[in-house]
Design a protein that fits this description.
single chain; 143 residues; mainly beta; OB fold (Dihydrolipoamide Acetyltransferase, E2P); 5-stranded antiparallel β-sheet; 3-stranded antiparallel β-sheet; 2 helices; 33% strand; disordered N terminus
């Protein structure tokens, strides 16, 4: 096995500071969905909001202006597709709608609606809300 040796040129490009420390682990972050029933995310002072675990704002690059926030979980369907041939994890739930939902806070997320089985069950603009579920993925229900 060859040893990896860091050359002086590689050392010059190494970051001057250590890694950014997270307030908690990714697992603890997502546990908020499962145990706390909260839709957690991050917001930056520049206005960027996401439900993805981040340590730095992808829009402005800030590390210090990013803070954890909770989303309401309500929004509207902006696009969807009915799934009749699902992935293995969803075989017992088909058909269902896989949707893009614009949350009230402006962030767009993807999720699925297990009770939307036919085209007449869902339409663009329908109001939906996120619901805590034992099922995989972000589950939404129609209001």
């Amino acid at each position: 096995m060859a040893a990896q040796v860091q050359t002086p040129a590689a050392q010059a490009h190494a970051p001057a500071t250590g890694p950014v420390s997270a307030p908690h682990s990714v697992g603890e972050f997502y546990k908020g969905y499962e145990e706390d029933g909260k839709l957690r995310g991050y917001a930056c002072a520049c206005g960027y909001k996401t439900l993805t675990y981040i340590l730095q704002c992808p829009r402005c690059g800030s590390k210090k202006d990013v803070s954890e926030t909770t989303f309401k979980g309500t929004g509207e369907v902006i696009a969807y597709s009915l799934q009749n041939v699902p992935a293995d994890e969803f075989v017992n739930d088909a058909p269902y709608a896989y949707a893009l939902v614009r949350l009230e806070e402006g962030t767009v997320v993807s999720g699925w609606l297990p009770n939307a089985k036919r085209p007449e069950d869902l339409k663009i603009g329908d109001k939906v809300h996120w619901t805590k579920s034992y099922k995989i993925g972000m589950v939404f229900e129609k209001d």
